[in-house]
From TrEMBL:
It is found in: Cell membrane. InterPro entries: BP-dependent_transpt_permease, MetI-like, MetI-like_sf. Belongs to the binding-protein-dependent transport system permease family. PANTHER family: OLIGOPEPTIDE TRANSPORT SYSTEM PERMEASE PROTEIN AMID (PTHR43386:SF24), OLIGOPEPTIDE TRANSPORT SYSTEM PERMEASE PROTEIN APPC (PTHR43386). The keyword Cytoplasm does not apply. The keyword Kinase does not apply. This is ABC transmembrane type-1 domain-containing protein. Keywords: Cell membrane, Membrane, Peptide transport, Protein transport, Transmembrane, Transmembrane helix, Transport. The chain crosses the membrane at residues 25-47, 85-107, 119-141, 147-165, 196-216, 250-271. Residues 87-272 form the ABC transmembrane type-1 domain. It is a multi-pass membrane protein.
Length: 286
């Protein structure tokens, strides 16, 4: 695939996505979350999230838009720090899963034989284990904390991508452009990296969006169970802390944490569908 054709496909993809107001709104939401997370990571905003700013359990008001928690801390600052954790987890986990899935899928699909059988067996084994049980087991083994979240989620979200990449590589490895590369003496690595993988890149991009939102939801679940983030705000921790407060009429912490998670997950779901419709060759002409 030459550079001009590749650029035209991406321009057409952006044009088709820009036509949808819903997709544009979803992209704006993702960008806002990303900017907020980056600013929080750099300490520009919500750096003093643990500071007491008011009395215990202040309802949302002009001074504290999202209210305060039991210790008088700003719920808004905690939401922002939770967004930082969520976006960090989503990005790092997606990178880990993509690395594992693309490498194993490409190797299995290209070389076939015993190598492919071993990779297919590994995929089948991983897929047969309930995901939540595997996640909990890995976090117990690795210990609590953000690093354990990265590793556990990265090791459990590559299977679907591996299967898709394997199938596409099997279809592409015997095509004319790969045979031409073989004729001029290209190595296996060169054919995979420079010729085959660029033609299956759309699958990686679509899966990146899907893995990102799955990682966010999984982090919230693990943090809710006490197996995730420690000593830092997380939407899962906030929901867990606030579940008892509902009986006292304190609704704002669990409500805003849930809405924050809902918006980013919904935005990534919309983007994932839009990317699939725009990039999948089978759907591009519809």
């Amino acid at each position: 695939m030459n550079q001009t054709l590749t650029q035209s496909i991406w321009l057409e993809t952006l044009r088709r996505m820009a036509k949808s107001k819903l997709t544009t709104a979803a992209l704006i939401i993702v960008l806002i979350y990303a900017v907020v997370a980056l600013l929080a990571y750099c300490g520009i905003i919500a750096a003093n999230w643990s500071q007491e700013v008011g009395t215990s359990y202040e309802a949302p008001n002009i001074q504290h838009w999202f209210g305060t928690d039991i210790f008088g801390r700003s719920v808004l600052r905690k939401i922002i720090k939770g967004a930082q954790v969520a976006m960090n987890v989503g990005f790092v986990v997606s990178m880990i899963a993509i690395l594992i899935g693309v490498v194993l899928g490409a190797i299995g699909g290209y070389f076939g034989g015993v190598v492919d059988e071993m990779i297919v067996w590994l995929c089948s084994t991983m897929a047969s284990i309930p995901n939540i049980m595997l996640l909990i087991s890995l976090t117990f083994i690795l210990g609590k904390g953000i690093l354990a979240i990265y590793i556990a989620l990265g090791m459990t979200n590559w299977v679907e991508l591996c299967r898709l990449i394997r199938g596409e590589v099997i279809k592409h490895k015997d095509r004319e452009y790969v045979q031409a590369a073989t004729a001029i003496g290209a190595s296996h690595v060169s054919k995979l990296w420079w010729h085959i993988l660029p033609n299956v890149l759309h699958i990686v991009i679509i899966q990146f969006s899907g893995i990102f939102q799955i990682a966010i939801k999984s982090e919230v679940i693990l943090s809710y169970l006490g197996l995730g983030v420690q000593n830092s705000p997380s939407w899962g921790v906030m929901i867990n802390d606030a579940k008892v407060e509902l009986m006292q009429g304190v609704w704002w912490e669990i409500a805003f944490a849930t809405v924050a998670m809902f918006l980013i997950v919904l935005a990534f779901n919309i983007l994932s569908d839009a990317l699939r419709d725009a990039l999948d060759p089978k759907l591009r002409g519809k």
